[in-house]
Design brief:
It is built from no helices and 11 strands. It is an all-beta fold. Strand 5 and strand 6 form a beta hairpin.
Length: 122
């Protein structure tokens, strides 16, 4: 089970750090991923730790967001800097065992959170 927290409302240029607490240990080779979704649009993969913690970012957040995991493998983070109004969305975390690739879609992950809202005003 995954539980997100840390969402909120900020002005453009501000920062937030999202957390995703896991009820089980995610060590070894795993896909741990942040998605986001705006009403009426498809859920977008934002950032992922793949295999042995290799970070992968969407072009839209590269250079602004940083994904990380604590050493205990129980909490996933997303540090979001220089937030912009287009970053406004519900943010979800997901985890899946890495078997040479990570699922593309949120529905392909075995463990999924309920989401935390991020709102960025101009």
């Amino acid at each position: 089970q995954l539980t997100e927290s840390g969402g909120g409302s900020v002005q453009a240029g501000g920062s937030l750090r999202l957390s995703c607490a896991a009820s089980e240990y995610f060590g070894g080779r795993f896909c741990m991923t942040w998605f986001r979704q705006v009403p009426g649009k498809e859920r977008e993969k934002v950032a992922s730790l793949e295999g042995l913690n290799r970070p992968v970012y969407a072009d839209s957040v590269t250079g602004r967001f940083v994904i990380s995991k604590d050493n205990q493998g129980m909490t996933l983070y997303l540090q979001m800097n220089d937030l912009q109004p287009e970053d406004t969305a519900m943010y979800y975390c997901a985890a899946e065992e890495y078997l040479g690739y990570c699922p593309r879609e949120f529905g392909g992950f075995t463990s999924r959170g309920q989401g935390t809202q991020v709102t960025v005003s101009s």
